[in-house]
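Quick question: what would this complex look like in 3D?
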Amino acid sequence: MAVMDQIEQKISAGIPISRNEAATLYLEADDQKLSDLASLARMRFHKADEATYLIMAIVNYTNVCVAKCDYCSFYRLPHDKEGYLLNTDQVCQKIEELVQHGGKLIGFNGGFHPKLRLDDYANLFTEVRRRYPSLEFYEMTVAEFMFSCKLSKLSYDAGAQKLAASGTRWVTGGGAEIMDNGFRKRHSPGKYTVEDYHNAQESILRAGMGSTATMVIGFDETLDERLNHLESLRTFQDRVGGTLASFLCWTYKPWNNEFGGIELATSEYLRWLAVSRIYLHNFRNIRTSVLTKNEDALKGLRFGANDFDLPTEDEVTTRAGATISLDFERILAAARGLGFKTIERSAWPTRAWR
Ligand code: SF4
C-alpha cells in the first residue's frame, strides 16, 4: 500500500503516525494532500465547518530579561533605560483596554526578571483576579515559572503548589519555541533544557493548574529539530493523560533582534500546521496564529486548526514585526469566506492532571 494511503488509514482509525511518516508527509505530500489529511484528523474532534475563537490580549508586564535569546526583539537587560516593570494599576489599565474590545482572556508574558519572585507573581495575579472576576487569566508561561522558581529557591512542585494555592488556574506552555537541546544551545542557552521544561510543566499540572503547548517555527531549525519538538510533546501529552488543552504554532518574526533572518512563508506555516495536527493525534485543539499571520492564519483552518485568537495587544511580537488589527469583522470574514461558521467561545476549562 502506498505510504499516503497507510497514513490516511491510521488517521481514520485514530492510530498515531510514526515520526518517519510525519517526515514523509512533510517532504512528499502536496499542499492539497496535507490539507485533506489534516482535515480528516481534525474531524475526529470537531465539526468540519466550524471554527472557534476568543478575543484576548497579552499583557507584557516587564521587558526586563536576563536570558538573552538571540531571536528576541523584546527584552532589555536590567539597568537598560528602556527597561520597564508595570505596577498593578498599570497592568489593570491594560486589562481595561481589552475589556473595552470585548475580550475575555488575558495572557501575561514578560521576561526573566532578576527580582521577581514567585510571591510577587502570586500577589499580582491575586489582585487582578479580585478586580476582574469575570475574566480568565493565563498567568505565566512555563519558562517564566521555571526562572522564578529558581530565583525563589523553590522546587517546581513547591512553586506550583504556591501558585495554585493563591488561586492561579493556568500556567501556559509559552516560551517553548523549538524544544530541542541543540537548538536551545545555539540560540538561548540560558533558558531551559527540554527535560527541565517538561518536569516544570508536569509539576504545574500535578498541582491542579491547566497548561498548553506551543511551538515557534522559522528560525534556522532543521526538520529533525522540529520533529523532536513534536515527538517530545506527544510523549509528554501521553504521560500527563492528555491534559494539555491545546497546541498553538506560530512563526518567528525576524526584525529588530540579533539573529535576524527571513520571515517564513505562509505556505510553509500551513504545511507544518497540517503535519502537527496529524502527528499530534492526542491533542484535541490545534490553534492557528492570527497574531503573526493576520488573515492568512485563517487558511490554517483548512490545514488542521480548529481555533484562533483575535489578539488586541502583544508587545513581544509587534516589536519583532507583527501587526495587530482590531478590525475583527474583517478577520472573521476571512474565515467565513473559507466556508467556516465562526463561534466565539469562552476560555476552556482547565483539565489538570491529578
Ligand atoms: S524570548 Fe523570553 S526568555 Fe528569551 S530573551 Fe526574550 S523575553 Fe527573555
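Answer marked as accepted. Residues 47-344 form a domain with the TIM Barrel fold (CATH 3.20.20.70).
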